[in-house]
Structures are given as C-alpha cells and as structure tokens.
Records
---
Amino acid sequence: MGANTGPLDHVVVIGASLAGLRACETLRTDGFAGRITLVGAEDEVPYDRPPLSKKLLAGEWDGDRIRLRKPEAFDELGLELRLGVRATGLDTERRTIALADGGEVPYDGVVIATGAAPRRLPGQPALDGICELRTLADALDLRSRLGEATRVTVIGAGFIGLEVAATARQAGCLVTVLEGAPSPLIRGLGVELGAAVASVHARHDVDLRCGVQVSAIEGVDGRVAGVRLGDGTLIGSDVVVVGIGVSPATDWLADSGLELRDGIVCDDTLWTGVPGVYAAGDCARWHNHVFDPHDDAVMRVEHWTNAAEQGAVAARNLLAVAAGSAPTPYESVPFFWSDQFESRIQFVGRAHGDDEVHVFAGSTDGSFAALYGWQGRLRGVLGVSMPKMVMPFRALLAAQASWDEALEKAAALTS
Ligand SMILES: Cc1cc2nc3c(=O)[nH]c(=O)nc-3n(C[C@H](O)[C@H](O)[C@H](O)COP(=O)(O)OP(=O)(O)OC[C@H]3O[C@@H](n4cnc5c(N)ncnc54)[C@H](O)[C@@H]3O)c2cc1C
C-alpha cells in the first residue's frame, strides 16, 4: 500500500474544486509545511456545484454565495494557485505535470481531483441553445437563457436533468424531459422507486417521457429548434439541456501509465499504485471494503460527500506513507441528496435494478422511505422528504446488516 515517496517538499493538487480543496486543507491541518500548488482548469476559486442546478440556476443565489472559501482563505493556506490552466500530462518518471500553457510543475506528491465532465450525444451538433451543466459558467449561461425561453427540453432523466427540469418549470418554462430508459432515475434508484420519486414532476406539469429515442437535435440558422424523436415527432425547443451523465475527467492522463477504467483505478487507500500519486472525488475508482465480498465493492461515486471525504483521506494517506506510517483505507457508505420541487430526496448506500424494495414509511405518491436489499442484506435506504428515516441506517449499512435487521430498525423508527 502506497510505496514510499521520498522527501515530500512539494505537493501538487490537480483540480480546484471540492476534493482538491479538501486535500489542500488536510495537508495543512495535518502539519505539512512544504509547498502546495493547486492547479485548476476553471478561472474560479473552488465553488460548490449542487446549487448550480438549484438555487443558483433559479436566480436566488449568485456566484459569490457558492464559493467554498473566502478569497483570503487561500492565502492563509499558503497555496500557489494556478487557475485557468489545464493539466495536460503526468510524467511519473520525471515527476512533473505538464500544463496547457506550456509550463511544467515538478512534484513530490500529487492528489488528482479532476472530477468529471458531461457526456455528449453521438454527433451532437454545435447549435446555440444546446446547454450542459457542470460549471458555474454553464449555470449562468443556462440561467440567462431560461429567463427568455418558453420551451425547454431536457435530455436525460437522471438527478441533474430532473433538477434542471424542476427549476426551469418553476421559472415558468414549459418543460419536456426525454429519457431512453423505461423509467426515470433508473441508475440511482431502480425502475419502481425511480418512477415514484419522479412523479412529483407530473404533479407540476413537466412532460416526462420515458422509453423514447432521441434521433437528432435540430436547428435553424445556427439556433436550436427542437429534438427529433425516433418516431419522427419534433419537440419544439428554445433551449435543450443535455443531461445524460458524466465521464471521469481523465483524458489528460492517457499517457501517464496510471490504470484508467471508468476513473483512475486506486487501491482501498486511494493510492494509484504509482509512488506519491493519489486520486479523490468523482474521478477516482477505489475498493470500498464496506461492500465486500460482492464484486460491486470497486466503485466510483459522483456525490458531494464522497468528494469531500476522499480529498481529505487522499492527502492524509500521502503524508502518512511519506512519513513511513500505514495509510488508512477509505471505507464509506455513499450518501447523496437531490432537491426537486418540494421533494428532498436522500439516499444512503447503493441501489441496483434487481434489488428488493420495501416501502416502510409514508406512501409513494408523496413522502416516503424505502429499504433496498439484495441477497438477504440491506444495500440502501431512500427517503423522499423524510430526513429522519434515512441517516439512522448508515451505521447498519456500514456494518453490513441483514435484511431482517433493517426491517426491525424500520419498524422501530415507525412505531
Ligand atoms: C449541477 C450539479 C448538481 C449537483 N448536485 C448534487 C447534489 O445535490 N448532491 C450531491 O451529493 N452531489 C451533487 N453533485 C455532485 C457533486 O457536486 C460532485 O460529486 C462534486 O463536485 C465532485 O467534486 P470533485 O472535486 O471530485 O470534482 P469536480 O467538482 O468535478 O471538480 C473537478 C475540477 O477539476 C477541474 N479539472 C478537470 N480537468 C482538469 C485538468 N486536466 N487540469 C486542471 N483542472 C481540471 C475541473 O475544471 C473542476 O473544476 C452535483 C453536481 C452538479 C454538476
């Protein structure tokens, strides 16, 4: 685990967002007094992404409100900030990072936290009015367009697509959501409860169509005009938001020798297998012992809590190994939330399409809570506007509780 790095005088953190910031802060709180360089492709100091599809998109918050730290905090941390420049390569022999501006940064240790980038449709045209949502710049652009748009089409009924749909609808737009799978939120919640959670959209007159095929996004004079479906229907649109998921931002590592497989492959301590190089957040795939012995224990997670925790753990393990101490495995039960209209959705654990589900509180046409189980074991817990029913299960999930233990806990919580 984590071969020795040699003297650690200069740590470079690539990716100036949540995981990267937490890595820098942890280096300092754990006593690292050497140089820290934080490299980020965006011009922005680290900011929070969840509000991009919620309060910031709705115009209730501005860009300053979502900064993760005040400007002076970066001086206090003693960071050398290299913002607005992308890392283009990692040379693990020479221990250097190449930058898009032609510069090169030497390192003794690295934390890679480059996150993820939106996927695009095959052959997606370049038309004004086609939007994606990952960055503050994307959100501000989409926000200004929603102010003028009448008809908004969202391609993809995942969490971010449905949050955008809710915000656009609340802004007064006519909203259509197109999903190829038979049910919304299928990847996160499975068929049955994905549909139940997304039913809030029908109650707010969002036209949510599942099992449809998008054949093209069409435009007139360089501007988007609509989305053509496989059956020939044209959904007229002023704005089209492509929300079909993200891919880990690892292209720049193609020649690095790091193992890349839908993310940077790490061991259980977030070590990449290359001396001094760790990864954290949306770009990292690691072995999470909480889910042993099943084969889904090697995972990549795209949630806020995971990125924050992993940034800290990767930095701590880099320091530990450099000091000749044992690194600590990152073992965690994934958690995320999503806000759509009046629903606050929370999920702890993992869900698969073939899980057994059991609604133990409320009713699926409003607020409810449900257990997800597999092979006699609890695997996840969902709450829709039932915050007190979700987190009590986190410890049970960490302890690999049985389905029967979970049913007992559910009964106790609802009695
Ligand atoms: C609109 C939206 C809403 C969300 N809502 C929720 C929510 O409600 N709940 C929840 O749990 N999670 C939510 N998430 C997910 C959460 O924000 C992410 O899991 C988290 O931001 C991941 O942090 P990260 O630091 O790993 O990566 P990111 O936040 O993606 O940051 C990576 C940074 O690295 C930079 N970068 C990429 N490549 C390079 C390079 N080659 N060189 C230098 N810099 C590079 C990027 O520009 C970016 O700034 C949401 C995400 C989005 C986009």
---
Amino acid sequence: MNRHEDNLDDGRHPRGNHRKADDSAGRHTETKAVRGGAHLDKKNGPLGTPIYQTSTFEVADNDEQLRVTPTDRFYTRYGNPTNTVAEETVAQLEAVDAALTFASGMGAITTTILALLKSGDHIVAQRDIYGGATKFFTQWLPKMGIQTTLVDTTEYEQHARAIRPNTRLLYVESPTNPAVRVVDLRKVAELARQHKLISMIDGTFGTPINQRPAEFGIDLVMHSGTKYLAGHSDLICGVVAGRGDLIQRIHSTRTTLGNCMDPHASWMLIRGLKTLAVRVARQNENALRVAEFLSQHAKVRSVHYPFLKSHPEYAVARAQMSGGGGMVAFEVEGSGEDARRASESMRLFTLAPSLGGVESLVSIPVLTSHAMITAAEREKMGVTEQMIRLSVGIENADDLIADLEHALETVAATPQHAQVG
Ligand SMILES: Cc1ncc(COP(=O)(O)O)c(C=O)c1O
C-alpha cells in the first residue's frame, strides 16, 4: 500500500463507513462540510480525494482476501474508499454514527424500507412527502404485504391514533415538497420513542446546514443527494445517515439490491459538499428576499416559505432550523394556465424539475414532482394547479426578483385577495 492510498483508509478497520465519526467532535458544520471524511492526520497524500474507479481490489494472498472482505477494499458493490469518504462526511454533517450512499434518493428510500420492514409490518407516513415516496408506499409496498397509513402532516394526534401493534416506522419529511410545511421533529421523535418505532425523515429540503434531525431524536435522515448536497444539478445520488445498528442492516440490503453509488459520482458529491455551507447560506438569503417580494404582489394568492412570519409553522421552523432554505412555493391568482404561462415567461428561473442546485429553477408540481400521485391525494396536500415551486439559486437576488416581476405580468387574473401562508 503506498502513501497515497494510505490517505484514505488503512484497511485494518472494519468497513470504514461503520466507524464512529468521532474525530469531528467540536468542529463546526461548515468545517465538517469542507474537511469531512478526509483523514487529516495523514501527511503527504493528495489534497483531493482520489477516485477509486475500480470494481474490485487486488490482494496478495487468500488470508488477505479474508481480511479485506468486511472492509471497503473488497468489491465496490459492498463498499469503496471514495464512497467511504462521502459517507463519513455526511455522517459528520448530520452528527450521527454512520451514513450510506445510494445510486439515487429513491434508492435510499426504497432500500432503507426494504431493509428494516417485512411482510405484515405497517408504516405511519405523512401525507406531504415526495410523490415518488408516496407511490412506493401506497402502490409498491402493499404488494409485499406492508401497509401504510397516510396522516395529516402536522396533526400529531392523528399520527398517534394511526399507530398499530404492527407499526414499525414513522416516516416524515420536513420541510415538505412542495408546500414547505414544517414538522415538529421533537414531537415526532418522542412519539416514535414511546411506541418503539424507527423514525425516519426525508431531510432533502432542510440540508444538514439548516437542520440536523438527529439532534431532535430522529433515527434516520435521508437525502436526495441529487439536490443540495451535490448542489450543481449534475448528479443523481442518495444518502441515509443515522444510528449505527440500523445503518448496518441497510448496508447489507444495499449490497443485495445492488443499489450502490459509483465512485466517480461519490467524488463529485464530496466536491459538492465542500461548498454546501456557503451555497445554502446564500440560498437562504435569496429565498427569503424572493418570498417577501411575492407576498406583497397583487397577482400572488399565497406564499409558502418557513421563515415568513405568516407561515403556519413559523415558530417551529425558527426553533429547529437555522435558515429557511432555498425552496419557495406560491400560488398565482387565476388558473393553472396562468401558472404555466408565468413559469414559461421566466428567464433566470429555468423551467426544469429538481432543485437544490446553484442555478434557480422553476416547476409546476402537478406536472412534475407530484404528477405520479392521484389528484385526490394532491388536493389533500394542498398542491393546486396554480402552485409554482421555485428552487432559489445563488444568483443576485435583485435579478431573480426582476425576473419574477416580469413573469407575473403574464398572469391575467384580476386579483381577489392577497394572503400569505
Ligand atoms: C424531497 C425529495 N425526496 C426524494 C427525492 C428522490 O430523489 P432522487 O431523484 O435523487 O431519486 C426527491 C426528488 O425530487 C425529492 O425532491
């Protein structure tokens, strides 16, 4: 083993991604994002993380073969040193035991659920979750004998009433997609603890810069790393971070399902994570400016942003998040046609699904993120045809506001009332 290889992992430990991220103690979140899983005590190695673009690892003899089998130098479907660096960085950011990377955010969700639940088990999940997760819970899991009860997102009494003797998992998302509702994570974690359930959150919109759910007692945090963690709209990946015992079980299932991340993609994720804190800080500032502008606009019926005082969960958001995030949703006065026209008239906000990159994007949730769920479910979630979702990037806020001002001129409807929420 040469010194450069030595920079990543000495191979003597059990699989690197299951190690406690204890050398990060005392560092701030911004520092963890940049320095992450790189082992700072090793000298003379490359500053950048090497990409171990290999499917397998050579050994000197069969004794060594047996020794490396439980490590990240055996076969890349089981683990890979570059993936380990990405995983350790996210584990440090979330301040949890361990993390795992996946080929996509959906891969992270599906693999985790299949690892932890079996036929006959039951899930309580919020109604306001990513449409792909709703589809998996309501259309796929029943085929495997796993049922889900969807509950109103911030009705915690309803969550409690939905719990059955066979319930194993409480699944939430905060802030939610697309209406940026905010869930009281302390209440959810406490409910799960009382009933001995695993609590899991889709924390994609929050990012570990704005919120760290494990601090409130949540067991597993999932991210579509495609979004803020990678941050440049050039990568598909997913991450699950949390309790070490659960991560072990998920790791074994990931190996079987083959849902692992490619080392080159891991390297891109590591690079993205280095600027996560500065990107998110700018997105927080820009999104608040955009939300304030929209809430004063006569052709806007409602604005949804956690750090607007009119947001129904403003107090919870301020208590558990350090920034409101980069996502803003609003409804135009008028019809779905008006919303489509406004979204197509924007020049800086690019019409595209997805979110979390440095460029500002716009999309119509009923046509994109929530197209795959039924109209009845969408109605219960308050996702209307008039709703426009903005992923606010890191451009100059004045330019973004000018773009919205121009686009809203295309909304024909006579304003009836301007209200924020
Ligand atoms: C909140 C949220 N969770 C999960 C996903 C799924 O992630 P991926 O597209 O990386 O599979 C998405 C994708 O849009 C999302 O917005």
